[in-house]
Amino acid sequence: MKKVLLAIGLLSIAGTTMAAGKSCDDVKADIDAKIKVKGVSSYTLEAVEKGSSADGKVVGTCEGGSMEIVYKRG
Length: 74
Known about the structure:
The protein is an alpha+beta fold.
């Protein structure tokens, strides 16, 4: 059940953070705050070049869509 709620939460985060011109640091901070509110404690957020997110779930974009924010558990 927790996995389903986390997936729903991450999808809603991704939808709200698709702002084209925001810096990656700003987007990561917004996503980080939303994840912490949900009680998740062990995760990483990383800004990577668009299309290179093979090891995680894309939860947002930044830098005009050229970068993606990738969420990894653990």
